[in-house]
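Thread: Newbie trying to understand structure tokens

Hi all, I'm a second-year student working on a class project, and my supervisor (Dr. K.) asked me to get a predicted structure for one chain before our next meeting. I've only ever worked with sequences, so writing a 3D structure as a token string is new to me. If someone could post the tokens and maybe explain what I'm looking at, I'd be very grateful. Here's the chain:
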Amino acid sequence: MNPAVPTWAGVAASAALVVLAAAVAWRGRLHLTRDIAVAGVRAGLQLAAVGAILLLVFRHTGLAGAIGWLAVMVLIAGRVGARRAPGLPRALATATAAVAVGTAATLGTLLALGVIATQARVVIPVGGMVVSGAMQATSLALTRLCDEARTARPAIEARLSLGLAAADAFAPHQRTIVRTALIPAIDSTKTVGIISLPGAMTGLILAGVDPLTAIRYQIVVMYMLLAAAALAAVTAARLGERALFDDAHRLRPLTAEPQEARR
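---
Reply by user tm_fold:
Sure, no problem. This is what the structure looks like when written as tokens:
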């Protein structure tokens, strides 16, 4: 066994850290002890189940199985992103399309160019990172879009009353939406290697790969994540804008409250 990989006994020993976190929460009366314990148990069970399924995918299904796995990831990510846009018509379709566009365009391009191997054990982990980045950008874009539709409604309707089309009336807000959604991806790209060593590079180094080789792979991943976030944010903003207005260029009301307000 690779000495850099913890044994199952080591994994069990690391559970003491979860116990420590739960104890801190209990001692501080944070009412989070149960949540921490459940999160720790769920994480272990979910990752063990995913590991078992991936073992089967790697051995028996190849690239087709990897693509199917990524499709499931995109559907789940779309549901997560849609929750950030309560009251937005076609929120689920919008979020899913945004994540799919960001993932397919970036991962598909690099696979077609041969930059990334077509093996399932490569496509799934790299694709998972891309789906996660696209989901984050989509969630931020839809959250900000709904906020803008609520708080800036008088200004938008004033532009509409002056004869502007829906796209022109909403254009200033759309730029703000996309900029906000891209901030995490841009900041992560700026500080990569300085503040933290990202997952792909860390995993390769732990596996014994030369650091310079690991850096090349991480650069590819970071550029892919940035592009996926940009494409997902723009797609979410564009499709979300279309859902906000009816055929007569009238701004639809968003009746549902944001999730933060309902908590």
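A couple of things are worth pointing out once you decode it. The radius of gyration is 22 Å. The mean pLDDT is 88. Feel free to ask follow-ups in this thread.
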